[in-house]
Each structure stands twice: as C-alpha cells, then as structure tokens.
Amino acid sequence: MKIVVTGGAGFIGSAVVWRLNELGIDDILIVDRMDKTDKWKNLVPLRFADYMDAYDFIEEADSFDDVDVIFHLGACSSTTETDADHMIRNNFQYTQDLAEWAVERGIRFIYASSAATYGDGSAGMSDGFEHLATLRPLNIYGYSKHLFDQWAAGNGMFDHIVGIKYFNVFGPNEDHKGDMRSLVNKAFGQINSTGKLQLFKSASPDHADGEFGRDFVYVKDAVDMTLHFMESRVGGLFNVGSGRTTTWNALADAIFAALGRPTNVEFIEMPEHLRDRYQYYTLADLTRIRRAGYSADTTQVGDAVTDYVNNYLVPDKHLGDA
Asked: Cβ(86)–Cβ(246) under 8 Å?
C-alpha cells in the first residue's frame, strides 16, 4: 500500500506515520514544509520512503500514479493567524486541488477538518451535512476549514472522501507548535519552571474561572479513529474527540497529579484579542463515527495525561523513540 501523508512531519501527521509503522507500513511519502521549526525531529524515529515539499507535490502530482490513500493533514493550524489570504490558499484552495486530483484517480482521500468550524457551539456540534450552513466559525482558521467542508458537500465529494473534525488533540510530537501547543505541553514547562500553572480567567458571566472546558482527545485515539477510515469505504464528515468535556480545572489537576505535585493554579486575565473568539465549551458527538464502525473506547483524560507526561515529556521522547 502506497500512502501519502501531507503534514507528515507535524503533530497529527507524524503520529499517523508512527501508527502506520506499527502496522508494518512504511511505503509512505511525507509531504510537508519544515519552515523554521523543529518538527523534523518528529520524523527521526519514523520509517518512510521519501519526503517532498508540499508545493512541489501539488505541482508534480500527476507523476504519482500508484497512490492508494492520502491523509491530508497539512494546514496552517494557528487559531490566532490573521492573514486570511494565506489561510484560504493554504487550507482551502490547496485542499480543493488535492481532493479533486485524488477523486479523479479513485484514491482514498481523508482530510483534517476541525471542531473550530463549530464556533461558539450555539448551532450545535453535529457532524451531519444538514447543519453546515448554520455554523459560524470564530476565526479565519475555522472558517478556512468550514469553507472546504461546504464546498465538498456542495460538490458531492463526500460520496468519496472523509473529513475529520478534530477536537482538542494533545499528546507527543506537538513541541514544535509554539503557542498552539496543548495546555498539557505548556503546563509541563511552566510547572517545572515556576511550580504553578497560569490559566485564563473566564470572560463570560456564564462560566466560573476554570470551569469551562473542551473535549480533549489523546493523539493516539485521534490517530486510531482516523486510520479507521483507511479500511472503511464510508464517506462523510466525522467528529473525532473523546466524547467527554473536561474543565480546565480538572485538566490542571490531572497534570499536577502526573507530575506528583499538589495543584497550584493562578488565574490571569484573558487577552483582549481572544475574548470575542474563545470557545468555552466543546463536546464531540461521536454517534456518526460509531455508526461507521469505530467501536474502541477513548482514553480517559487522566490516563492520557499520565502517559504523555511520564512516557514522553519527562524523558523528552517522540513517538517511535525506543
């Protein structure tokens, strides 16, 4: 089986390659852009056939006639990015071109959408097509993903392709993501340096400090749910999350517990630029992915945090390291 993983040096992409390696698959083409990051370190323990720049790949795609599956996980994933032109070109138009190329050739196409498409959640978080027109993303990242979801639905693409609406994924191989790293990753360094963790105060009268939360899903679960669609021929949009909402306070408790320390949280003001586009609550409805045949339980947040902290952050290891 010949597999292309775009964003293959990134967080979820490299985790997909790691799991494919565990399944005995290494005929993999990594497509990415390294830029000035350390994400190349994610590739060091992994096995793959070749690496190619993302823009070179789209230019030369017609020369690849033996591809079975494309996991299109490459994107600009910053929720604070303000360059709308870059987001539309990178996240929407590139995905359009690649999807059309794959569908024309009968190549299985599985791409990353996002729970950011759901905005503040007031329109619900159902992954059914009939709800797309009601969604109002809060940032250009979420909108760029939503735009492709709508285009794919409007052009009948979901008869052939799969979109994955990732919720808050965390785990090993995210070190290069800077401000977009998970709270678990940021907290590890902060607690080791200062002995405490800073969390944003609530800027909403409906939520007490630390009592708003997200659906946090461990990257190992997110990868297994994604790879389910490599064998299943079903098409459509599917939520990928834990199916549980965890408050920031509960997540902080889990992080301190994994480090063997008492919880010590300091609440600070939420930055002004985040207040109008902050998701206070997310919860993945997993009904459709369950109906599509994915039956495994997702890892409890406390267990996932313990595995991440003790087996990856403390020893400073990546997925695939011995």
From this structure: no
141 annotated active-site: yes
pLDDT recorded at residue 278: 86
Residue 184: per-residue pLDDT: 97
Range of the domain at 288: 3-171+215-243+281-298
Per-residue model confidence (pLDDT) at position 298: 98
Please tell me which residue in 2, 41, 177, 317 is annotated as part of the active site. 177
- Give the pLDDT score at 231: 87
Low-confidence ranges of the chain (pLDDT < 50): none
The CA distance from 238 to 226, in Å, is: 9
Give the domain CATH number at 10. 3.40.50.720
Model pLDDT, residue 80: 79
Q: Kindly state whether residue 207 falls inside one of the protein's structural domains.
A: no
Out of 141, 166, 278, 308, pick the active-site residue: 141
Position 94 in a domain = yes
* 177 given a catalytic annotation: yes
Q: In terms of Cα–Cα distance, which of 181, 292, 288 is closest to 243?
A: 288
* Inside any domain, residue 120: yes
The pLDDT assigned to 251 comes to 97
Task: State residue 78's pLDDT score.
Answer: 81
Q: Is residue 68, in this structure, part of any structural domain at all?
A: yes
Could you give the CA distance from residue 211 to residue 245 in angstroms, rounded to a whole number?
A: 11
Neighbours of 248 (CB within 10 A): 22
Per-residue pLDDT at 28: 98
Number of domains in the chain: 1
